[in-house]
Amino acid sequence: MTEQRTTPAQDGSAPDSPGASERPVRVNAWNGWDPLRHVIVGRAEGTVVQAPEHAVRRDYPDDGFPLGTYGPMPADMVAEADQQLDDFADMLRRRGIRVDRPTPVDFTKEVSTPEWTHESMFGCMPPRDLLLTVGNEVLEATMSYRSRWFEYLCYRPVLQDLFDADPRMRWEAAPKPRLTDASYKAGFWDTYNELPTDVQLARVRDYDLVLTEAEPLFDAADVARFGKDLFVQLSFVTNRSGYDWLRRHFPDHRVHAVTSTNTHPLHIDATWVPLRPGLVLHCGERLADAELMEFFKLNDWEIVEAVQPASWDHPPKLSFCSPWLAGNMLNLDANTLCVEENEVRLAEQLSSYGFEIVPVPFRAVGPFGGGLHCATVDIERDGGLEDYFP
Ligand code: ABU
């Protein structure tokens, strides 16, 4: 029998609406657009600019963290981001959506495995990087940064609750990676950013980036779910072996490896964004593979090129996301999209396709790793497994 959870939120925020808390917990999500019933929303609390590591280069000379330095994000930025995250969570609750939140740990702590030690963790944003829901399964991704190796701990209380409440839930974790020096190309970041764009793009196309193929590595946010088809972007955090692991792990799906003309590929969810059956948003600056475009066109999907983001001229401090984060939206259903409130042009563009737009103040969350899609993980959406590319 499915247990009912009716406990109010423990964090002072609004409790789940009566409708949400009376429904049995049910892990079920096959795509990004079916009606949303239950979601995880991340937290900014405790986030640090992580200690230097092979996988990633953080260099914010104008914002107090020049190359090689690390430490807690400024308290005012954390407070503003957490306010926006809490307000967003409350808005979702008011719409009858059940909301869970992660439990931060001390991210300033040194962490280690028997094979390495790292001076810091990172945070518990964005949850979309770590968790992938496919049907009744929630899969913990490998991740590829040492600073994010232990991030799963922040989500274990929520995952344990889901597991206890839904007897159908499959709780999976991809093989914990070793992340020894063998997983990274030595000196990659010493030269990559200075290379001409055409050389960078050739390396993206040939998948010659920072990760080696020593072991499977992927972030969940490199996977876009379109029912029976999963599109996995090869990126700075997802290697071919990670794609291959996903392909074998989901034998009943068609799992596709994709790249785009993005010199700094990091998560697919601002590049190739499912909107509803038959409609996908594409970041025109990052041209998708010809085969990917063809696959969608042959199946009569319309590919909409996103307008230039409003955040183009105002990159936030300490942010490692591009302005294309504008396209990182959350569907409440196939007709309703949460869009960052400043992205008015994008909202207008999507309204013209018939979407109801819910504007959400979220710019302060960007420096913590993402937009409205990154900051969430869908746990339950209505609907079942469909083939949109028959
Ligand atoms: N997951 C966020 C992607 C951000 C970007 O494409 O810039």
TrEMBL record:
Q: Which Gene3D superfamilies match?
A: L-arginine/glycine Amidinotransferase, Chain A
What are the EC numbers? 2.1.4.1
Key words of the record: Transferase
What superkingdom heads the lineage? Bacteria
Polar residues compositional bias, start-end: 1-10
Q: Where is the active site?
A: D219, H267, C374 (amidino-cysteine intermediate)
- Report the InterPro entries cross-referenced here: AmidinoTrfase
Q: Does the keyword Transferase apply?
A: yes
Q: Name one GO biological process term.
A: creatine biosynthetic process
Tell me one GO molecular function of this protein. glycine amidinotransferase activity
Annotated stretches, region: Disordered: 1-25
**What is stated as this protein's family in its record?**
Belongs to the amidinotransferase family.
User: What protein name does the entry list?
Assistant: Glycine amidinotransferase
Q: What is the lineage of its organism?
A: Bacteria, Bacillati, Actinomycetota, Actinomycetes, Kitasatosporales
